[in-house]
Specification:
about 290 residues, 10-stranded mixed beta sheet, 17 strands, about 45% strand
C-alpha cells in the first residue's frame, strides 16, 4: 500500500510594499529648482525649505524621501531615480533611519532597494540618506549606480547598523548585500560589493572583517578635484570615535567607517559629511539628520 508523501507547510503569499520615486533638478537662472517629480506606492518625496545662518542664496535645494510603509520586510522593493542637470546643486536625504525587519524564512526574498543617480556637468549632487537598521533575521539587498558627467561631483553616503546595541539586540541570523557602481565621464571608476549571511555578530567580530563593530558606513566622493578633500578629511578623523580608512584613486575618494554602535557611526558620518560640504561651499546636512 502506497502512502502519499507528507505535505510540507508553505508560507502564505502576502501583499508586499512597493515604491517608486523619480526626481529631477534643473536650473532657473542661477537657482536650482524642481524639474521632474514622480512618486508611487510607499515612496513619497517632500521638498522642505532650506534655512541657513549664512546668506540664503548659498542654500542648496533639498529633497526628503519617505517610506510610508514604516520599514522593509522580505520581498519589499523600493526604486529611486534622481537626476541633477548641468550646474544644479541639491541634497537628497531621508526622513529617518530605514528599518529592515525579520524575514519569514531563511529562503525568503530579501527587501530590495535600488538607486540610480545621474549627475550633469558642473553639478553638485549629494545623496545623503540616513542609516539603515538591520534587525535579527532581516534580509536586505541594496544597489547604487551613478553616472557623473565630466566636471560634475557626487557626494554619496550609505550606512548599515546591525541591531540597536542600546536595546541589547544582536544579529545572529540574516543576510545583506551592498553594491556600488560609479562611472565618471563615461568610464567605470568604482565598483564594490559587500555581502554577508548567517550570524552577523560573529562575522563582524572577526578582526579582518569588523573587529567587533556593529555598524558600517561608506562615504564616496566622485568627480572633479575630489582629491582636494583628502587632507581635510584626514584631519577630521582625529575628532571622531569610529575607525576610519580613506583612499583616493581615479577621481574617487572613498571613506570607510566602523562603529561600535549606530550612534558612534552616525556621529562620525555627520562630522565627515559636514566637513566635505563645507569644503564644497555647500549647505550643511539637512534638519532631518538632527531630529
Amino acid at each position: 500500500m502506497q502512502h502519499a508523501p507528507p505535505t510540507l507547510p508553505t508560507l502564505p503569499i502576502l501583499q508586499r510594499a512597493s515604491g517608486e520615486a523619480r526626481l529631477g533638478f534643473k536650473l532657473r537662472g542661477d537657482k536650482t529648482v524642481l524639474d521632474d517629480l514622480y512618486q508611487s506606492g510607499c515612496s513619497k518625496i517632500r521638498l522642505p525649505r532650506r534655512l541657513s545662518n549664512e546668506r540664503r542664496d548659498k542654500c542648496d535645494a533639498e529633497a526628503v524621501l519617505i517610506n510610508t510603509s514604516g520599514g522593509l520586510a522580505d520581498g519589499d522593493c523600493l526604486n529611486t531615480k534622481i537626476t541633477w542637470q548641468n550646474g544644479t546643486r541639491a541634497h537628497v536625504t531621508s526622513q529617518a533611519a530605514e528599518r529592515v525587519y525579520r524575514a519569514r524564512s531563511l529562503t525568503s526574498a530579501p527587501a530590495c532597494v535600488t538607486t540610480s543617480l545621474h549627475v550633469g556637468e558642473a553639478a553638485l549632487a549629494c545623496w545623503l540618506p540616513q542609516e539603515t537598521i538591520l534587525f535579527d533575521g532581516g534580509r536586505f539587498s541594496r544597489a547604487i549606480t551613478a553616472n557623473v558627467a565630466a566636471g560634475g561631483l557626487l557626494l554619496a553616503c550609505e550606512s548599515l547598523v546591525f541591531g540597536r546595541t542600546a536595546m541589547g539586540e544582536q544579529i545572529t541570523s540574516g543576510a545583506f548585500c551592498d553594491a556600488w557602481q560609479i562611472s565618471y565621464d563615461g568610464a567605470l571608476v568604482f565598483a564594490d560589493r559587500q555581502a554577508g549571511e548567517g550570524d552577523m555578530a560573529a562575522l563582524l567580530a572577526r578582526p579582518a572583517i569588523g573587529g567587533g563593530a556593529a555598524a558600517i558606513g561608506s562615504i564616496l566622493v566622485a568627480g572633479a578635484r575630489c582629491e582636494d578633500l583628502l587632507q581635510p578629511l584626514r584631519d577630521c578623523c582625529e575628532k571622531i570615535g569610529a575607525r576610519v580608512g580613506i583612499s583616493c584613486r581615479d577621481h574617487v575618494v572613498v571613506v570607510r567607517l566602523l562603529g561600535a554602535d549606530g550612534l558612534q557611526l552616525r556621529t562620525g558620518l555627520m562630522v565627515l559629511l559636514n566637513e566635505i560640504l563645507q569644503q564644497l561651499d555647500s549647505s550643511e546636512l539637512g534638519r532631518s539628520w538632527y531630529c
